[in-house]
Design goal:
single chain, alpha+beta, 22 helices
Amino acid sequence: MGDEKKGDGLYTISPEKFSQSTAALTELSSTKKNLQDDAEEDTKCGLGDWKPQWLQKLATPKLFLFFYSMAGLAQGAQFTYLVGCMSTLEKRYAYDSKKSGLVMISDEFPPILLGALIGYFGGLAHRPRLLAFGLLMGSLSCFIMAGPYFIYGPKSVDNVQTISKYTTVKAQFCDSDFNAVQESCGKSIATPVLSIFVLSNLVKGLASVIFYTIGTAYMDDSVKKNNSSVYLGTLFSLRLLGPTFGFLLSSLCLSFYEDPFYDPGYSTKDPRWIGAWWLGFIILGIAIFIFSIPMVLFPKRFPGKKLPSELKNKKETKPEPPKSPIEQLKDMGKAMKRLGKNPILICHYLGGVFRLNGLIGYYVLLPKYMETQFRQSASVASLYSGPAGLVGMIFGIFLGGIAIRKFKPRPRVMTGGIVFAECFSFLALIICMMITCPVYQMTGTSSVIQPQFSLNNTCNTDCLCSTKVYTPVCGPDGKSTYFSPCYAGCQGYNKTDGKEVFTDCKCVHDESGIIRVGEATKGYCNSECQWLITFVVVLCVGKLLSSTSRVANALVTLRCVDPKDKSIALGALSGVFSLLAFIPYPLIYGALTDASCLVWEKSCGKTGNCWIYDSDKFRYLLHGVSAGFVFLGCVTDVFVFILSPRLKNLYDDDEEEKKEPMTERDEVEIISNGGILGVFKTGVPNNSFNPLKDEEKTSTPL
């Protein structure tokens, strides 16, 4: 039976069709209600059944930004704290910079193996709770890192006492009879300690890939694209306070001795000083744990935001059955294939790889470089190398984000600005390479430019000196520094008015360079360097200018891929950076650091940490290699600039540009009046509706 039009834009239909339509609409309404209930549940703050109404007011992107930034601050501090303590750990457990490099790269294996998987499957999970899990892993890694102190204890009784005939003086003297029989060798703990450090960094790597991959995508999805640059700029700026805090914390902790309740008898400027390296890891572990708690309570998505694509696809009369793991892996493979065919993304990845190799490697070695080049203690070096430059980076990132928000530059302008800004890093490194200080005059040693540098000479050979402990002394000429009283040929010691003097030194030089018997004072000769502040200022300005491109770089990564590939792109980026940047740079820079070493710590036939570096060689290698990497990064940025017109929709939200047309599956309203059935689309005027169509298509829309 056909339908009859009764006027007013309505139809009458048969009872059979009415029953069928009512059943279909009831099923549709039930399905829609279930989806709406699930969607509402996804936007509520809380855990389990505990979701009080007062807590829902806290479900805002701004509050998430605050807690996420604070958590990022603590995690960033963990990395730079380790960097600031690295030279101290090398001295404490007697291993070289290459082994430090192995420790540094161990946290890159989780991103390589799991980065893409976490990025893909993490985008389908409850992301804030996954972030909380990552933070708990970061907290655990801090406690593991501090473990060796509680397992092996502090170095409160220095072994140097066993090689000194003066039991109250921790220095080696020229006494062949005593030195020949005092070499005591205990069991080395370097290998088990390094194993603990590697385990800690493996856990830290898992925590980092979860935190940065999932968190950045969640933040970008939670705000409008128009405001994304401001949020990302604020996020990156606050996150950089973490490295600053890490260096400050290392400076503070290293000013205390490893056992804070023990007095070793020498100051922080003494090469033998071992700071309380473990203390900062305990502090950071507690802080990361505290910030993991609010993350658990945030909703899967914020109120007012569109459904994620995986939920949006379920907006059907009958939900699709869940995909099997094999099908999901196939989908991930297709997504990876899309990323591999994206030329902008590939060039952008390569640029980041080159820059990270150069800049991260440089800043990891910067504290040690300042100790060597500018005669600073480990505590002071951490203070200068961290906050001074990172404060400039914070301002640069924040200004870059504000500029993008205000001016909304076209892709070509934005990527051109990236090239221009990154060039300042290259220029700053070249200028810093030219800033130098006079090297210590190691009189009585072979020349640095000769194939072999040796502390031994014809005068001190019979003393049987070792390099087990570095105790510098200054000769009577006031400019010649000797490795220890033993290498200066000193046989006696006295302390008057707090001044330590080594006497009967047969291998010291006078002002004319002639060897004679004289006295030597403890410590380096007075050779202050006036270029430290200039070096720090140049470095700070270079960081400030180059960091203005950080937000633009993040936007290129997020906007050059499909929105559905955002999380996996960040996960893949983490894996690429780990494989090609974070693993190579510790090995590269560890090798160039060891290549600059002149005097190694040697005891019991084993080589430990480096005591003295060739400062000029160290300076040229460090800055030259870093500048080369940064230059290659600038070259790849030029290719991104050329391809930049392909970037679309940098600042506009898709849902604001396009309104999806309403379909028969949109919410409907049924009005029954005396056997007359009217089918209206919600929000559509009465004179512009389409009647429900049955399988025979007997209804004719107006």
